[in-house]
Amino acid sequence: MAFDHKKYRPYHPINKTDRRWPNATIEHSPKWCSVDLRDGNQALIDPMTVDQKDRLFSLLVEVGFKEIEVGFPAASQTDFDFVRSLIEQNKIPDDVTIQVLTQARHDLIERTYEALKGVKQAVVHLYNSTSPTQREKVFKLDKQGIVDIAVNGAKTVKALAAGYPETHWTFQYSPESFSATEPEFAVEICNAVLAVWQPTPEQPAIINLPSTVEMTTPNVFADQIEYMHENFAYRDSVILSVHTHNDRGCAVAAAELAILAGAQRVEGTLLGNGERTGNMDIVTMAMNLYSQGIDPTLDLSGVSKIVQTIQDCTQLPVHPRHPYVGELVYTAFSGSHQDAINKCLQVQHESDHWDVAYLPIDPTDVGRSYQEVVRINSQSGKGGVAFVLEQIYGFKLPRWMQIALSKVVQKRAEGVGKEISVDEIYRVFTETFIHSAGKILNYDIHQQHDKQRLDATIETPHGVTTIVGIGNGPLEAFLNALMAHDSTHYEISDYQEHAMGAGSKADAAAYIAIKCNDQNGYGVAIQQDSVLASLQACYNAVVQAKQVQDEEQLQAS
Ligand SMILES: CC(=O)SCCNC(=O)CCNC(=O)[C@H](O)C(C)(C)COP(=O)(O)OP(=O)(O)OC[C@H]1O[C@@H](n2cnc3c(N)ncnc32)[C@H](O)[C@@H]1OP(=O)(O)O
Ligand SMILES: CC(C)C(=O)C(=O)O
């Protein structure tokens, strides 16, 4: 049997009964370190060129990263040249620290320092792998042999740094494959490295704990981090960092729980590019904080630029449902979602905390628009259609008008079997309820005793007619005039109007629901003159009711 789960074994959680992280909350942003230019780069089909790296570095600085891992300079000439170009062309702002990765090998560490010559400040990031699989199968060494690699590397890092006194150095150590390493051994090897570096609160070192391959639920990772936080030496002189990967799809969750467990720093990439399923997605985690009212310390308002730059530099597409940045993440197609969004947005005031159903953040915060929030297909309802017409064209449809329009739009959407564009909705709306086969050219109102007499001239495809009626107001007079003209009984069942926009010159939009014998009809009109708007809407409603009646008769015959 090829698909056999018995091939695998469960990961054994660590035996921790005093865990504190489940009761903790995240109260402020961690320190961020972008590893887009290193871990992100080493996962690409075609690694970035110096120009692409340059462009991405500028974006990272613009977004507000203060620590950026810019490469593995001993690994390739491109990485070496890129680091040199940043330093020689003075491209590193004073408040930004670049970081570079190296294996614990003397020649590679030497080359790493050559690449960094002249830099104001930098983090030298040393790593070696520590898990049983790596020890036994890759390095073929016992625990002491692995500790020796780390300690020798740490000594070299420290010794060579002394040759570059003009630079402010920070040392970072990662026990690669930490999440698969016995916690006691992870503490032992980190302490051995720290004993070489002797960090102080003024000159701290970074211990970076990676889930090189994510292999457990995030709570187990949190236990591991809490264990380290409680057990390694020099705790007040160490910045505890995490570097999670997304093999199980939980890299962000694991980093968040790690913060609860005592981590102070998080490494990741902007949209989660990285080895295999990727690194921790910093945009997602930072926006998660933002959506909880916590300053993420990164400016992610220019999401389109971030997405475009990442795509151009990595040649990787961004999924339309990627958290916070995907093309479709602020869009609702389904009717009840649209209805709820519409209702919430109507009562959402600028001074209030954001509280809109189905929208965890305000899309405009990241440069997205409300226009894209609601899109219409056959799954949509009246609230969505009304939202679109209000947002884009300024119509505030009364509920009964929404119901009438939604039926027509739904029929059209089912007919075409796909999304209906905003322009198409507007066309359906105007064709059905506004462009009737008759235009009121002018009207005249005279007071006659306690009533009003209305003379209206209407242009129809059959010619121009003038009708006359008397009523308590212009609308009633108009209906009486129509009833005098044909044998139908007309009765207004609903009426509403509003100004389109602000100011005294704003057009009036009138909405009328009418009963013609037993048939409902709906009409809309927009005119400068609000009386004309209501008369025209009334006439449009009559025409619409008759059209529906004719269609029904045709279908029945
Ligand atoms: C989890 C991570 O993301 S770690 C970062 C991984 N990133 C990369 O590897 C990208 C850049 N790397 C490279 O370009 C290359 O690996 C280089 C240039 C650094 C080294 O290349 P090579 O010298 O040809 O070595 P290669 O990668 O084939 O093999 C690794 C060797 O280094 C050893 N090694 C691997 N990692 C480490 C380490 N962190 N510290 C010390 N030795 C190490 C291996 O045991 C192996 O030793 P062996 O030659 O005695 O068998
Ligand atoms: C070098 C380390 C931090 C790494 O990239 C990993 O383990 O994923």
UniProtKB/TrEMBL annotation:
InterPro entries: 2-isopropylmalate_synth_dimer, AIPM/Hcit_synth_CS, Aldolase_TIM, IPM_Synthase, LeuA-like_post-cat, LeuA_allosteric_dom_sf, LeuA_N_DRE-TIM, PYR_CT
Region listing for Regulatory domain, in residue ranges: 436-557
EC number: 2.3.3.13
Subcellular location as annotated: Cytoplasm
Catalytic activity: 3-methyl-2-oxobutanoate + acetyl-CoA + H2O = (2S)-2-isopropylmalate + CoA + H(+)
Pyruvate carboxyltransferase domain segment(s): 30-304
Cited SUPFAM superfamilies: 2-isopropylmalate synthase LeuA, allosteric (dimerisation) domain, Aldolase, post-HMGL domain-like
GO terms assigned for molecular function: 2-isopropylmalate synthase activity; acetyl-CoA C-acetyltransferase activity; magnesium ion binding
Classification via CDD domains: DRE_TIM_LeuA
Enzyme class, broadest EC rank: transferase
Alphabetical GO biological process terms: L-leucine biosynthetic process
Pfam families: HMGL-like (PF00682), IPMS_D2 (PF22615), LeuA_dimer (PF08502)
Entry keyword set: Acyltransferase, Amino-acid biosynthesis, Branched-chain amino acid biosynthesis, Cytoplasm, Leucine biosynthesis, Magnesium, Metal-binding, Transferase
Pathway: Amino-acid biosynthesis; L-leucine biosynthesis; L-leucine from 3-methyl-2-oxobutanoate: step 1/4
Role, per record: Catalyzes the condensation of the acetyl group of acetyl-CoA with 3-methyl-2-oxobutanoate (2-ketoisovalerate) to form 3-carboxy-3-hydroxy-4-methylpentanoate (2-isopropylmalate).
This protein's name: 2-isopropylmalate synthase
Originating organism: Spartinivicinus marinus
